Amino acid sequence: MSIIVYLIPVALGLGLLGLLAFLWSVNSGQYDDLDGAAHRILTDDDTPL
Amino acid sequence: MTEAALLSGAGCPSGLEPPGRSPTGDVSAFVQSRDGISMLLLSVRGAKCGGCLTKIESTLRALPGVEEARMNLSNGKLRVAWHGGDLANTIVDHLTKLGYGVSAFSEDETAKANKSEERQLLLAMGVAAFALANIMLLSVSVWGGHGEMGSQTRTALHAISGLIAFPVLVFSGRHFFQSAWSVLKHGRANMDVPISLALILAFGVSVWETASGGAHAYFDASVMLLFFLLIGRFLDARLRRQAHAAAHDLAALQDRSVSRRTASGVIEAVRADEILRGDEIVLAAGERAVIDLRISSGTSSVDESLVTGESLPRTVQAGETIYAGTINLDGPMTGEALGPASDSLLSDIASMLEAGEQKRARYRKIADKAVALYVPFVHTAAALTLITWLALGASPRDAILVAVATLIITCPCALALAAPVAQVVAAGRLFGMGVYLRSGDALERLAEIDHIVFDKTGTLTLGVPQLVSAHGDELNLAAQLARASRHPLSRAIVRAAGPGPLADAIVEHPGLGVEGRVNGQYARLGAAEWVGLTSPPQSNGPSLWFASAQGDPIEFQFEDQLQDDAMAALSRFQDQGVPVEILSGDTETAVANIAKRLSIPRWTSRVSPRGKVDHLTRLREQDKQVLMVGDGLNDAGALALAHASLAPGGAMDVSQSASDAVYSGGLSALPRILEVAKRARAIMLQNFGLAAVYNLIAVPIAVTGHVTPLIAAIAMSASSLIVTVNALRIKQGADI
Questions:
Q1: Which residues, other chains included, contact B624 with Cβ-Cβ below 8 Å and sequence gap of 6+?
Q2: What φ, ψ does residue B344 adopt, rounded to 5°?
Q3: Separation of alpha carbons B329 and B284, rounded Å
Q4: Which of B47, B375, B455, B515 could potentially form a cystine with B459 if both were Cys, beta carbons 3.0 to 4.6 Å apart?
Q5: Any long-range contacts for B538-545 (C-beta under 8 Å, 24+ apart)?
Q6: How do beta strands B101-104 and B267-271 pair?
Q7: Measured between alpha carbons, how far is B497 from B471 in angstroms, rounded to an integer?
Q8: CB < 8 Å to B71, chain A
């Protein structure tokens, strides 16, 4: 059972990583325009080859 | 229509929205400049799809000097940055040509504060979710290992849970603790007091249990509680922010730019909120005054229908005062500003607004009533549990554990979600119908309506006169003069006559009429006295006289036009047995005519703003829950006083902010608003019922000491989920 000494910190670390990603996404305005992002991916804004 | 035609057409290429129109006005007053880069925030209407996004952004980026053009499709905000010359009006022109409605937009302080509050709550929610997931992971191992896990391992897992929970409670729970503390300081209590108490007690007892190596720790329950409560709080904040933003957007639709004459005689376009008392303002023909003015030079007829409800234009001269909302019809005028735009209100209307809002603030929301019943019940139950267990000989430790478990499991999780979720879903549905709700409790008040009072001009009618008397040839002759004028009666003649030639040598005399050469002959169109009639016959409504060299002067009669869907909406109310009446500031004949056409038996004419307030006070005294629908400044006091109030999208901003909701798209929205409100209220009541049933089941289990952290976790999440899913039913159901 001594393995949980490593496993719990690893699990928490991964969770923390997710939390940091969430905090970054909120603070950088990723949720400000949910409709626009869905359409923007379809726009062809580069020049043809 | 082919695809190419659709793409080249005006407005949304997917045809989701008809092309919009922009208010005329100079937007350069809204440009912010820094380091040679100018920036403009615009509110764009009619952009609904990805095609709009590309169309708008690529057009603007192609303009010389434009560095950035980014459109937010969710809220219709467009940010344009450029260097070099003044592009602001060019940008607006381009967007208007593309078929979108544009108005300048400046974010106000409330919007900024709301946005930051919403973001804080979202962060708090994210942190609580992280903690909840990780603590649950540890708790599940404890529950799963029940009976097999060594007590040391269990205590270690509890300790780790506690270490995660503590910073999260401090960070995410501060919203509740701060609010609870601020009301406790004043010796009062709100919903946050029992919430804070439950959070602190759950955490404290768990720390104690962990320290003494006990089996039950409620770290997971306390964080779960926090998470669910934050969801409710977040939804509430979001609804408030969206409501405010929508109202602000509608206000931005109205032209807020003013022409000010500087000391050196230059006319500059400035924002209305920059105007100070004593500034010299130029009001062009066709422009709407956004501040109160004392006229210093110029004579013109003005349309004061938004201020007084009177649909006939009035002539004003130097020395007279006109109020914000007045439209200058024919001649340019100069005036002195009587105060900044924010003070621009008749002072007695301001005091009426205040009195109305105070009365309305006394309204108790369903959620408040539920909490008032609920909190003493829960706290008494917990206290009684403690005393009974002690009396039956349990150890103080066991008794406290059971009492705290009771408090945790009955914590108003479902109660805190019951109202906000229903309100958010209903507001979303209304939003889709073009109705912008200003507050959550407005829905509750709208659902209780049993009497409706309408304003006439601009609400039941379009506020635009229509020609009702027919004269074939003379109409075409008069139209030649009318085409040169912006007077609403001239416009009505032009609409009736259609396109045609213009007379020569036209001169417009403000307040009198137009004269010129029609087919080589001198002719006049205007007031009866002006065309040479000494004793004109009494007329029923607004009229114009046309006089030429041939024959006697001819009268053109006009009538205010009904809104297209007024008939349908009102008959629907009458079918439902809701009494309807008209309260108007207009003349008796005008009101009687409209009332007859809509078969409304009760109407009152020539009512002053004070009279409207008095009338609503009388109805209130008869215990009627009145819905007031109105658009003018003269309605603002009544709108604020009514049990619930609605304003059309074109209403004065004062009236919009005095109402509970602003609707666009005609009167047919009204019955639907009331339907949605009733449905939302029914669902809210159901939700509170569900929360009560949950407590009826949970409390006996808790007080008998059968609650473990596992049961608490399941019960709390199940009740919150049921309430949320029930609220989503507002979205379904028959199309209202």
A1: B450, B451
A2: -75, 80
A3: 9
A4: B455
A5: B540/B589, B540/B593, B541/B589, B541/B590, B541/B593, B542/B311, B542/B312, B542/B465, B542/B489, B544/B478, B544/B489, B544/B490, B544/B493, B544/B513
A6: unpaired
A7: 10
A8: 36
Q: CA B346: distance to chain centroid?
A: 23
CB-based contact B716:B224 (threshold 8 Å): yes
The residues, ordered by sequence, that sit 6+ positions from B395 with a Cβ below 8 Å of its Cβ are none
Pairing verdict, β B314-316 and B333-337: unpaired
Could you give the CA distance from residue B397 to residue B415 in angstroms, rounded to a whole number?
29
Looking at per-residue pLDDT, the higher value among B388 and B359 belongs to B388
* Cβ neighbours, 10 Å, residue B227: 25
pLDDT band at B388 (very low <50, low <70, confident <90, very high): very high
The number of angstroms, rounded, from the C-alpha of B430 to the middle of its chain's C-alpha atoms is 11
- Which residue reads 């007590």 in tokens? B151
CB contact under 8 A, A23 and B123: yes
Most confident stretch, B120-129, B400-409, B410-419, B439-448? B120-129
CB atoms within 10 A of CB B41: 16
As given in the structure block, the two tokens for residue B268 are 């500059």
pLDDT, residue B124, reads: 94
**Smallest CA–CA separation between A15 and chain B, in Å?**
7
- Cα(B425)–Cα(B217) distance, rounded to whole angstroms? 36
Using alpha carbons only, how large is chain A's radius of gyration in Å? 19
- Mean pLDDT over the full length of chain B: 83
C-alpha closest to that of B47 among B97, B4, B98: B98
Which residues on A lie below 8 Å from B144 (Cβ)?
none
pLDDT of B651 higher than 50: yes
More confident call, B646 vs B323: B646
Q: Which of B654, B657, B656, B661 is nearest to B627 (CA)?
A: B661
pLDDT, tens digit, 9 for 90 and up, residues B96-130 = 888 888 888 777 777 788 888 888 999 999 999 99
- All residues at 6 or more sequence positions from B697 whose CB lies less than 8 Å from its CB, including other chains: none
Beta bridge partners of B548: B523
Total beta-carbon pairs less than 8 A apart between chain A and chain B: 53
> Considering chain B, what percentage of its residues have pLDDT values greater than 90?
11
Is pLDDT above 90 for B167? yes
pLDDT for position B253: 63
**Higher local confidence (pLDDT), B15 or B572:** B572
Q: Which residues contact B726 (CB under 8 A, 6 or more apart)?
A: B683, B686, B687, B690
Contact B55, B71 (CB under 8 A): no
Give yes or no: B455 in active site.
yes
Q: What is the 3-state secondary structure (H, E, C) of B254-285?
A: CCCEEEEECCCCCEEEEEHHHCCCCCEEEECC
Which H or E element spans position B295?
A: strand B293-297
**Residue B130 exposed, middle or buried by CB count within 10 Å (0-12, 13-18, 19+):** buried
Q: Which member of B72, B123, B137 has the closest CB to residue A26?
A: B123
- If you average pLDDT over residues B211-232, what whole number do you get? 88
Among candidates B53, B58, B126 on the partner chain, residue whose Cβ is nearest the Cβ of A22:
B126
Contact status, residue B526 vs residue B330, Cβ threshold 8 Å: no
Contacts 24+ apart (CB under 8 A), B64-73: B66/B91, B67/B37, B71/A36, B71/B44, B71/B47, B72/A32, B72/A33, B72/A36, B73/A33, B73/A35, B73/A36, B73/A39, B73/B47, B73/B48
**Residues contacting residue B644 through CB under 8 Å, at least 6 positions apart:** B442, B445, B446, B448, B449, B625, B626, B627, B628, B660
- Asked whether residue B59 carries a pLDDT value surpassing 60, the answer given is yes
Residues 6+ apart with CB under 8 A from B310: B304, B457, B585, B586, B587
Q: Is the dihedral of CA B677, B681, B684, B690 positive or negative?
A: negative
Cβ pair A8:B138 closer than 8 A: yes
Structure tokens at B538: 């009494």
Rounded to two decimals, the pTM is 0.77
